[in-house]
What does this fold into?
Amino acid sequence: MKKQAPDAIDLLDGDHLAVHALFQSYRELARTRANALQRRALAEEICMELAIHARLEEELFYPAVRDALNDGELLDEAEDPHGSQREFIAQILTAQADDALYDARVFVLEDYVERHVQQEREQVFNRVLASRLDLHALARSISVRKEELRAVSDALREDALAFALA
It folds into this structure.
């Protein structure tokens, strides 16, 4: 029996799980007092994964869902946390890893992301699954765009840093 390809929700939730695992790894580095370079490298990886994920949602997922559900308020609530997430990312990317508040910034970002993921799963994903949105076609678009964004991760980093200066 052929396994069905992942749909858009599978892909986005896979990102959620992957970032959760990265945050857990960061917590372990902080707990064991790993050196600043190790913590910074992982924090930057987390930030880039979140930046890519947010772009995918903003460019592809939320517009498609907005059309399918005809519920702008729900999507505004789901999309709104991305602005604050950008602020946290910018703070982390511009801070020194040996700064006394560096780990705290990463932990605040983790808490923020976890709340956003829970809200998205409970309020958005469930409604999308009940809609007629072609989640497999959307998954193909998301996969292609994700690879494009990975290829320009330096530009995404520069966008995040520009946000810090704005």
